[in-house]
Design goal:
Length: 66
Amino acid sequence: MNLGIALEALEEQGSGTARLEAAVETFDACLRVAASVWPPNWVGQVCAVRDLVRAEIEWRGSAQDG
């Protein structure tokens, strides 16, 4: 499970945020399962990256609006 690779592939397909938002939602579903077996520090690191992606989505949304 590599969020960076998936997001890079989505980036190449368009500039909108809908696909990125769907990818983060899907990733969250996977993370809920993985969190039960992964060490807490791994989960924390992955959540930090996910949060950066969410911030990027928000930034892109505001950039498109303004």
